[in-house]
Amino acid sequence: MQITALGDSAVIVRLRDRFEDAPDETLNEILRTFRRLQEAAIPGVIELAPAYTTVAVFFNPLRMINDGAKPDGVIELLVQRIDEALAGGRRRHKRTATHMAEIPVCYDLEFAMDLKRVANHAQISPSEVIDLHRGAEYRVNCIGFTPGFPYLSGLPDKLATPRHTVPRKEIPAGSVAIAGAQAGIYPQKSPGGWNVIGRTPFRLFDPQRDPPVLLQTGDQMRFRKITREEFESLNG
Amino acid sequence: MNVTVIRAGFLATVQDLGRTGYRQFGVSSGGALDLHAMRIANLLVGNDETAAGLEITQRDVRLRFEDERIISWCGGVYKASVALRSIPAGHSTLVSAGDELSISGPQQGCRGWLAVSGGIAVPPVLGSRSTDLRGNFGGLGGRALRDGDIVPLGENSERTNVWIDNLRAERIAQWSAPQPWSQTATANPVLRVVRGAEWNSFNEVTLQRFTSEAFAISPDSDRMGVRLAGPELRRTDDVAEPGEARQLFQERLRARSSEPNRKSWTTQPIEPIGCPSGRKRLDLVSEAVAPGTIQVPPSGMPILLLGDCQTIGGYPKIAQVITVDLSVAAQLRAGDHLRFSEVSIAEAHGLLLRRERELERFRIGLSLHDS
User: Fold this and answer.
1) Interstrand relation of A54-59 and A10-14 (parallel, antiparallel or unpaired)
2) A194 in reach of chain B (CB within 8 A)
3) pLDDT 10s digits, B196-240
4) CATH topology of domain A100-235
């Protein structure tokens, strides 16, 4: 484990150097660390953010100083507190029953601007692309880019396709996409360079919900193929 | 009661002190790009520091008030006036029903923050009234203000009501905020930075140039970040040849600078790489970034992130602007030049603590006007 500063109000706790060698194991370790830091409720820590191999710890230096930290020793105290929180015996965390989320996708060509591109790249037919895509099980590695955007592992190797070198100016909300070995879903309309192969009628991010996201880091999911009619009725 | 937007200017948004606790869901902290200026403006009108105000960006804004309010503004070198009377930055000013406030400029800097007593009373979303322009939520319908918008205001506080009575004659208060807090734009600023996580992966010449040479601000800058042009920042293990990217960048810079009436103004965000497969040497696994982070993409042209930045990034982080200097960063505009100088984290905390103690004295000073 390595702790580095992200400016004067955050540190990054890095647990591993690489993610792709052991995605599941790394993800479980990150989630464990995230929960432990949450439970430790270190005074002055205001927010935690997991991502792949790291957990970022955001803090308010003034609150830490008010709480007794020396003004020139805030980081040292924080690092010590983080070490304490993560040391000690292996507390057994009940693994929250992992439910398998199901995200409906309509793969109609109207929505799937890059289905042919992915098929050509894999040298298979578009329907084989769809079958491979919906047959796999995915896991949310990280949420980022735009609010609620899930970065997914679990994409069948055959479907790995490089992103567009020139990103599109606008990708519609709900677009289900592929870039390199990762899969993802655009919760909002935004510019982007991933290969779009379908669209979900589900709202992945809704600021009026708590939590605002449908998928969280660590969640497992799969895609379910739906027709255009189902898409319209679910979209209502 | 409301305020009517007669002219919304280039980009005016409702902002408060931003969101905490939602980065894990990809939600930016957002809020006023100069949180300190927003706090000061709020204190000057008798609001809680956390009240929502308006952030204005370049070009003219005009607002009409329906009832008596105290207003104040901080930020770049704008000209503000009510009924032909000029209102200096950092002063509490009484406006009456029907009064029109006009803010024009800025001659220097980029943004201004306006507080209105009672605060802007849009409903909080995810714990904040700030407008998230990429997520399209918060503020007024998740978008920038438009001409003709009606913006709801909250009730004046007891303190504000006392001040209103005291200001009936003079209209503009004698008291004011310290000038460095209310006028935050400076020519050719030096931004203080602490080392970023990948500082050591840049070569020695690069680090030396980074902290000594000037960088120009590109027009491709917005609430997410400021793009900079200057010496190429190369890593020791750099394999890319950034010459071409650099040339393109500078051509774009020249083209954009000669466009006086640009309608859009955006950095065109792209997805962070996430987890790179096959691991090119320049790709890192994405991890947290924050306002103030200075990332270096393969072009070698750094990007300084601001309040609406993405929550994660995959570019190497050479340095990070310290919290107190984010006020200066919020005033950078195309064509300006800046330099960086390195400080320690302890120094950054010392500066923050000193400012907070001065702010505490300022608060106490303001309370003397309560009777």
Assistant:
1) antiparallel
2) yes
3) 999 999 999 999 999 999 999 998 889 999 999 998 888 876 544
4) Cyclophilin (2.40.100)
Nearest residue of A to residue B288 by CA position?
A56
Q: Where are the beta strands (DSSP E) in B31-149?
A: 53-57, 61-65, 69-75, 79-82, 85-86, 91-95, 100-104, 111-116
Give the pLDDT confidence of B97-154 residue by residue, as tens digits: 999 999 999 999 999 999 999 999 999 999 999 999 989 999 999 999 999 999 999 9
Residue of A145, A164, A168, A204 to mutate, interface with B, max B Cβ within 10 Å:
A145
| CB proximity list for B66: less than 8 A, separation 6 or greater | B1, B2, B3, B4, B97, B98
Q: What span, in angstroms and rounded, lies between the C-alpha atoms of B282 and A44?
A: 34
Q: Are the C-beta atoms of B339 and B214 separated by less than 8 Å? A: yes
Q: What residue ranges do the domains of chain A occupy?
A: 2-86, 100-235
Between vectors from CA A37 to CA A33 and to CA A42, what angle results, nearest 5°?
Answer: 160
CA distance B9 to B147: 8
For domain A2-86, give its CATH number from 1.10.150.120, 3.20.20.70, 3.30.1360.40, 3.20.20.140.
Answer: 3.30.1360.40
Looking at residue B284, what is its pLDDT? 82
Q: Which domains does chain B have, with CATH numbers?
A: 2-178 (no CATH), 190-350 (2.40.100.10)
Q: Which residue in chain B is spatially nearest to A218 when comparing CA positions?
A: B24
Q: Strands B190-195, B337-342: parallel, antiparallel or unpaired by DSSP?
A: parallel
Strand blocks (E) in B291-356: 293-295, 303-305, 312-313, 317-321, 337-342
Position B237 scores a pLDDT of 64
Burial environment of residue B88 by CB neighbours within 10 A (0 to 12, 13 to 18, 19 or more):
middle
Nearest partner of B113 among B32, B45, B176, B190, judged by Cα: B32
Count of residues making up chain A: 236
Question: Residue B349 half-sphere exposure, CB side, CA atoms within 13 Å?
Answer: 23
Cα separations (Å) of A87 from A3, A12, A79? 14, 17, 12
Residues of A in contact with B276 (CB under 8 A): 20, 180
Q: Which one of B17, B19, B22, B24 would you mutate to disrupt binding with A, by most A Cβ within 10 Å of its Cβ?
A: B24
- B223 token code pair: 């609430």
